[in-house]
Amino acid sequence: MAFGTLISLSLYFIVMLLIGLYAYKKSTSDVSGYMLGGRSLSPGVAALSAGASDMSGWMLMGLPGAMYISGVSSLWIAIGLVVGAFLNYLIVAPRLRTYTEIANDSITLPDFFENRFNDKSRLLRIVSSLVIVVFFTLYTSSGVVAGGKLFESSFGLNYEIGLYVTASVVVVYTLFGGFLAVSLTDFVQGCIMFVALVLVPVVAINEVGGIAEMQQSIAAINPELLNVFSKVSSDGTIISVSVIGIISALAWGLGYFGQPHIIVRFMAIRSVKDMPTARRIGMSWMIVAIIGAMSTGLVGIAYVAKTGIKLNDAETIFIVLSQLLFSPLIAGFLLAAILAAIMSTISSQLLVTSSSLTGDFYQAFLHRDASEKQLVLVGRISVFLVALVAIYLAYDRNSSILSLVSNAWAGFGAAFGPVVIGCLYWKDMTRNGALAGILSGAITVLIWIYAPITINGQSLGAIMYEIVPGFIVCSLAIYVVSKLSPKVEDSISEKFDEMLTHHN
């Protein structure tokens, strides 16, 4: 590894740890401060934190790799994500910030669901918490795997060492600094990702002779790479993008309504009045970043063809361009952007999982009268334990953990998305309706992924992304069961009814 690259990465790690130290002294004396930063995030921090924790390594590795292999047909996923993120800011964010505070200052989604419906049985909390803990432990592991492989492929380090370096830095600032540390580091990481995703494609396009030259070069290789209605497979086969395929790609946007690590940022922003500012910042960041990621993949096709370099893995195109086009010092900064994307998501997932273990299991069932200091301590222990499990799972390099990322996105979107929207907009929704929605949405996604059912030789997941049927089934279950089950009235539900009547 070049000395300049090592300097850049070392500075990055030091900054992350210093932010963790600052947050440790600032807002970790009580559980609300540790888990939600005291609901005091500025709109800029909340927006970039949501964006950075959302995109992960997918933005710098997955999307450029998809564009490199399949061409511009991958644009449909990007469109779905942008529309979904915008609607999430518009539909969910303002009401969730207000209503979670009304619902006994709820700091987790399971906490909010239980308080929203006055669920004395605690069944709603248990089921939603289990969904979060199981999926996010696997989700976290996928990020640790990505970090391990990045260190191995870029720096020549042992894969296992990469796992521990990635996880250790994230665990330290998350464990001590809590939500504020995660959000502030996400803000810095979001800025790094933004600069990287503008810098790399601009320099690469200039290197191949400009946009027109890039398009001509790609068309000479395969004109279908520039056709939004044609998908090029890894073996060069041309596949027409069907209507169902477009719907499946666009449906990625539905996942936003149910992602705990994203919508928790809306719960933590300091005021509802800051939401429009957060939306403008967040959406501007996302649109520029996605355009940069897609451009990186496309210009990579032209650059590889022009230079004749060998690219073993399409998802490493960002890394390859960073190392070939820039000095070691700048290349280190750009590799730090990939680490930033990976770490921002791992830290968010660790904290959300810790929140569920602390508030939804320990306090709810084991020690209801636990002090604030005890809860913060349990939260820190939970972060450490979840990280250990994630590292253990990541040791199996041939496991299917990475493939679970898209499955987890669908699982959260289908299980929680319609429930969150129903909580915020439909006053006749009941606890049984919410419970039926979570269970049916999650089960539908699992059946769609794992059931040995094929149509014309294709699995259900290959025909349509599992979030589509999961979201529909969850919504129907909420409506039907809510109509058939009685609603429990209490002071909180009455406040909700009044606000929903006023807002609607």
TrEMBL record:
Molecular function in Gene Ontology: L-proline transmembrane transporter activity; proline:sodium symporter activity; sodium ion binding
Keyword Iron-sulfur: no
Catalytic activity: L-proline(in) + Na(+)(in) = L-proline(out) + Na(+)(out)
Superkingdom, taxonomy of origin: Bacteria
InterPro entries from the UniProt entry: Na/Glc_symporter_sf, Na/Pro_symporter, Na/solute_symporter, Na/solute_symporter_CS, Sodium:Solute_Symporter
Transmembrane segments: 6-24, 75-92, 123-141, 161-180, 187-205, 238-264, 285-305, 317-342, 375-395, 401-426, 433-451, 463-481
Stated name of the protein: Sodium/proline symporter
Gene name, Swiss-Prot/TrEMBL: putP
